[in-house]
Amino acid sequence: MCFKRKLFLSLLFLGFSSVSFSQKITLDETSTGIDFLIDNQRVLTYQTAKEPVPEGVKSDFSKSGFIHPITSPSGQVLSRIQPKDHYHHYGIWGPWTRATISGREVDFWNLGDGKGRVDFAKVLSKKVAGGAAELNVRQNHLDLKAPEAEKLAIEEDLRIKVKPADKGRYMVDYTTTIETKIPGGILLDDYRYGGGIGFRATELWGDANSSILTSDGKTRKDADGTNAKWVIVKGKTADPSGQSGILFLSHNTNKSHPEPLRVWPLGQYKGEGNVFIEFCPIRHESWEIQPNERYSLKYRLIVFDGDLTADEAEAYWRAFVK
């Protein structure tokens, strides 16, 4: 069977032939962020302003440059920021954790340590065309304890593109490109957290009312530390179907693909709101970032209400990498 026919059948299977391209997608810039809207309903926000912290919490935990909220097509909020157990968790985001710079360890993830932070710097471009909305921003990874003064360690160009998909779903392309100008480069040390794309789910999801499935058939019970092409995260919501979720896809050109996962196992934290997953390319091996070279990681999200099957997830992944 020729490639074009295979691709056509894959798209037909996914229902792309029935996508309504009459859906209106827009961008709306506010004082705190940039909203993506489909038919005038906000589906996600990229936050450009620093998020204030709750009273009594260290100001170090305040940051910008993350996606929250991200909602299902019916408007169910699926992400969470500043949970009490991890004030440094911010919806959808991806700071590096153990970075070695000139022999020093810099942590851009654990904000409370005051060693590093990732902040929104500026909008590079934004456009609405071809039934999609696209935003390109610069994010600065700051070395806060550099010997002489606070220093820019990594420049990150983040591209977020949103468009409607089949079956009332929508897709988000999330492409991060990093570069350092530091002589000698940066070593992103192997660790179970850091980089890639992380997701802290709604406080409504816990062990009993949510589930995780990977491309290798792993669940929340045994997915942590394994490699995957994709992972489905879903749980109970107020949608009429009773459920919503996100399929996360890792591109086959990404470092360490199939990509290692950090998944909080069952019982990791008690009560509701204990769902966290991350594609973590440095989980099992370090990554040396050479000066003045650009490195990219590509992800796609399919956001849905109701269910999304493993067969659908596999077809979405094949369409993504082709």
Q: Overview of this structure, please?
A:
The chain has about 325 residues and is mainly beta. The chain has a single domain (about 5-320), classed as Distorted Sandwich (Beta-galactosidase, Chain A, domain 5). The protein is about 5% helix and about 40% strand. The protein is built from two helices and 21 strands. An eight-stranded antiparallel beta sheet has the order 8-9-10-11-21-17-16-14, covered by helices on one side. Mean pLDDT is about 95; it is low at about 1-15 and about 15-20. This is PmoA family protein.
Summarize the structure.
The protein has helices at 3-14, 310-321, and strands spanning 25-29, 33-38, 41-47, 66-70, 92-93, 99-101, 104-106, 116-129, 132-143, 151-164, 170-179, 186-188, 197-200, 210-214, 227-228, 230-236, 243-250, 259-263, 276-279, 287-289, 295-305. By secondary structure, the chain is mainly β.
Proportion of β residues?
A: 35-45%
The coarse silhouette is globular
Report the sheet with the most strands, covering strand number, pairing sense and barrel closure: 8 strands, antiparallel
* SS summary, helix count: 2
Order of helices and strands: HEEEEEEEEEEEEEEEEEEEEEH
What is the share of helical residues?
under 10%
DSSP strand tally: 21
Any idea what the radius of gyration is? 19 Å
CATH topology: Beta-galactosidase, Chain A, domain 5
The pLDDT mean sits at 94
Give the end-to-end Cα distance, rounded to a whole number of Å.
16 Å
Low-confidence stretches: 1-13, 15-20
Q: Which strand order spans the largest sheet, edge to edge or round the barrel?
A: 8-9-10-11-21-17-16-14
Secondary structure category:
mainly beta
Pfam family, one: DUF6807
Organism: Algoriphagus oliviformis
Protein name: PmoA family protein
Keywords: Signal
